[in-house]
Specification:
Its cofactor is Cu(2+). The protein has about 190 residues and is an alpha+beta fold. Helix content is about 20%, strand content about 30%.
């Protein structure tokens, strides 16, 4: 019995490692909370809360009757500004912002960091940095793909109010149809 329990725990550990992929670890990124659960439903909330490193397609596969039109999975994986008001950063024009990516499982693709206007979910500056290929499975991942800096441009008042803009790290691995994103709320 004990050996079977150890085997199950080991298998669960392997599965959780395989399911985890990548997020911004610094500066503080959007995290799931009650507003996210209200918009996207308890099933999607449970998935993201248990594995914030997962891909957006996993969320899409779990859309159900609890998922509302306010759940914008293509904007910060649906994570809500309302849950993250204490994480808003203040960036000035030409400020160099260091970014750390916590990568748990690579998948070859492309990646970039851009400034996104949340009202329209459109890129208003960037990409500020891009990688192609990104997070390759066939070569060593360069250190500058997990620890790098971006320079914040002058956004001419477009991001003056908290919640209007995010700094978004976006990574797309088309060969396996998986997209990962993390967002940092900021003002300028």
């Amino acid at each position: 019995m004990f050996a079977q329990l150890i085997a199950l725990v080991s298998a669960a550990s392997i599965v959780s490692t395989v399911c985890a992929h990548g997020v911004i670890s610094s500066p503080p990124r959007r995290l799931p909370g009650p507003a996210f659960e209200a918009a996207c439903g308890s099933q999607i909330y449970s998935i993201v809360s248990s594995d914030q490193y997962g891909n957006q397609q996993q969320e899409e596969q779990n859309i159900n009757s609890e998922t509302t039109s306010a759940c914008e999975l293509y904007l910060c994986k649906g994570l809500e500004y309302a849950d993250n008001t204490n994480n808003v950063q203040q960036f000035t024009a030409n400020q160099v912002v260091p970014i750390q990516i916590d990568l748990r499982a690579p998948h070859t693709g492309v990646a970039n960091v851009s400034v996104v206007a949340t009202a329209s979910n459109s890129v208003i500056a960037g990409p500020l940095i891009s990688f192609d290929p990104a997070y390759s499975t066939s070569t060593a991942i360069p250190a500058n793909q997990t620890s790098f800096s971006v320079t914040i441009p002058n956004l001419n008042g477009q991001c003056a109010t908290a919640g209007e803009c995010v700094l978004q790290w976006w990574w797309d691995a088309r060969s396996i149809d998986q997209t990962y994103m993390s967002c940092v709320d900021f003002t300028q």
